[in-house]
Amino acid sequence: MSDALPFFSLLETDPQTAALIAAEERRQREKIILIPSESLTAEPVREALGSVFSSVYAEGYPRKAMMRISGDRLADLDEQLASYRRYADRRFYKGAEFADLVESLAARRASEAFATDAFPADRIRANVQPLSGAAANLALYDAFVSPGETVMGMALTEGGHLTHGSEFNITGKRYRIVSYSVDPKTGKLDYDCIRQLAEEHRPKLIIGGFTSYPWQPDWEAFREIADAVDAVLLADVAHTAGLIVGGVYPNPIGIADVVSFTTHKTLCGPRGAVSCRPIRRSPSRSTRPSSPDCRAALM
Q1: CATH number at residue 231
Q2: pTM for the complete prediction?
Q3: Is residue 45 part of a domain?
Q4: Dihedrals phi, psi of 144, to nearest 5 degrees
Q5: What is the pLDDT of residues 22-33, one digit of tens each?
Q6: Residues with catalytic function
């Protein structure tokens, strides 16, 4: 990129857009609108989003070896560039050697943030490419469920998410959805009822995690239910990811088969999403006693 190219400031190029950005800055500074899907982003985040990496077309993924090494080794540019020249890459276009490093570093940091004693970062595979939580969840649907198969998630009206099978979302149109709800008396999840629904409808995918539910989930209970019907367990923790990293909310890593979350809510990062898959050494199976009758909401 030559410094001689005629690049101008946003104010010079598009004063109308510049004025809108300034107005939005004032709105965020002067008003409080409490939306669970938003958080304020720090200046370093916005600085990174506006970097020259916006010019790079990085379709594909970094080399697998890069996705599994420490941040210190990724910071050694001489080593990484030598490996890049020797082993080539998995991208569809050239010029992504530094984008590979940025993506690998982001994936490594995601793994480290969610690591546990039982599942250290080396046993967590993170995909940081999704641009939203919806895109991350749709990719997981595509990986684990075929169109027309059954998925179980929390109903939107009970505190679930659009991508958990709402009729207003493609998931509600493409898959057969069985929605669970909260107990109308306690406002809490009844895991015996959820198990009853799972045993009756045999979903291929069970989603735990919520948009609006004030109680902590019992990930082990979800695991036992999924094992009982041989379902994949997805923990969607988009709204609580920052609390998990902070150690004040149950971490589903090592319990769920896959974990998804967004980066722009309680993590206060850029708009994006991540899916993490813990690498199990051996599967665990468990059983629970039979549960009472419950009614499913079929969508």
Answers
A1: 3.40.640.10
A2: 0.86
A3: no
A4: -115, -20
A5: 999 999 999 998
A6: 57, 59, 236, 262, 265, 271
